[in-house]
Please model this.
Amino acid sequence: MSRQKQNLLYVLDSFSHRDVKRWKRQYQAISAYCWDHYSYFAHQRSRMADALKTSLLGNSIHLPASFITRAKRLGISAMLPVNTKELLLNTLLREDWRIMPMQFDIPSNPQILGQLAHAVGIEAILYPSVKTHKKCLVIYPENFQQASAYVEIEGDLPKGVDHGRIDRNTFNSFI
Model:
């Protein structure tokens, strides 16, 4: 076998000092745009978070005196609105969260939070079980329709599970 001579080809870019300056200005302009874009939406998220905090935890929700009077007449304590983060967390993670739905057919705070999350398009919520303290996942399949998010089972699928991934293409299979 004869050894063939290998030709090497060197390609060098050619550009001027002006090109480098132009690229730098373009990079700076794009970088400024990206930061302005991020800042604008960070500000919007901050305003939404503030509004949510005010509506959930602010002093904007008051229990009318008539409810307090009725509760006293019935010999029960008045159910005051949630107005601190600690109280909100306590009401969301109560072991007896089923009492109100079962006895009076009204949703509990965890159910109300779930309804709000579903209504605003949140795809899923990961939370600790009040019984076992293990992680639980609630998934709202229809909220994946317009989302880039997905939830996927890693490894072998459990028996009876046909789809290991929920995303914008498969969400209908879970409804």
Remarks:
- The longest helix spans residues 17-57.
- The mean pLDDT is 85.
